[in-house]
Task: structure prediction
Amino acid sequence: MRQSSLQFKVILGYTIISTMTLCLSLFSLVELRTVSLQLISGEHVYLLLNNVLEMRRFEKNYFLYHQQRDREQWQDYIKNVVDGLHEMRNDQFGSITNNISKYSDLVQHAVDNSTEETIRGLGKMIVTSAEEVAATERIQIHQALEKHQFVLVAAMIVVILVILALGRMVSRWIVLPLKLMEDSMIGVVNGQFTSIHIHSNDREILSLTKAFNLVLQELQQRHKHLLRSEKLAALGTLLSGVAHELNNPLSNISSSCQILYEEVESDDLEFRRELLSQVDEQTRRARDIVRSLLDFSRDREFKKSSFLLAPLIAEVIRFSKGNLPNRIQVHTEIPEQIVLHGDRQRLQQAFINLLKNSADAIPDTGNILIRALMPNTTQLPTLTAGRCRSPWVDIVVQDTGTGISEEHVSRIFDPFFTTKPVGKGSGLGLAVVFEVIEEHAGDIVVESQIGQGTRFIIRLPVQENCE
Result:
């Protein structure tokens, strides 16, 4: 398909409007010229009628007083009528021309009592014909003015309709694509990096769309890098907690080995088996901790599976324990039978971020409560089921911290938004949480008041068929 251009379309639109305006102006000038000629013709008709009436007046004066001066004036007006008829040369003056010719011959040759009656009759007919012509001319002028007015209004309406049509087309060519881009930009602000596809053949729109999509791709790549950086930062935070967790089983292994060395000559086999069992148990415990850490740090594709919620939360608390001050107590109320369906690693990162966020919000001593409600409970009416129509579970992370101001609540999930001092937070922690919950077709809301703590409510699906 041949590529078009907005510039060409805009120029074409201006050309059409200018041409129509010029045509309307020329047409108006022609119509005005026609009306002007009609008015000039009307003036001639009225002048003719006036000469006829003056001719009749001096006719009456002559027959009443028989003065030579009245006859001369009478003949002058007859000549004016004849000259006026010769100038106009219109078919509608045919009867007047014939009658005025007879009338003029009678006046020129003989005017006496025998011809008076004939002259008066011809004069009356001439006046009647002139009045009829004047009336007809008046009607024609009125009709010409009405026609001009109608045609001018109709032409203006056509021009206005064409301008409106062109405006609608310009709106479809320019305004609609720009509105789509505006909506996409708002989506980018909200963390959505969806490429736009605008159905247009215009070179400028295609170029702008291509450039916009390239910017989106670059932003998306950088967003992924930033999220990976946030994950690495969270991983670094976990290392101290993992070191603390590994220290306990390693200490137990070391103690058991020392005792075995001391009791190597002992004949108490049962005691040695017990020590070796403890070594094996603590080794498996250390292996599980390392494996969990590796699973968390490994960069892999989004993969869903079914798993128990309680062990996941316990693992999150264990990993975060080394970074939680002793003044903060973490409590859980999670039924053992609750099963989630999702990406365990991503959900683990989300809960680690939530737990860290809650801990940072508690300046002194305080508590963090993580509890879960059985699927499809109605205790939290502020949440919808999101895009998920299958059974869901509600998870609440609640702290006794300083709370969040009302003006900040609506922005806490925006990337790079943070209320912490410069250098204390990247503003990506809660953004990662929001993205993970969205990936799982769930919902998350926050309830908070200054000085009364914060409560995060998460709704997640418990079945595989939730997309």
User: Anything to note?
Assistant: The domain at 6-180 is CATH 1.20.120.1730 (Four Helix Bundle (Hemerythrin (Met), subunit A)). The chain has three domains: 6-180, 197-299, 302-467.
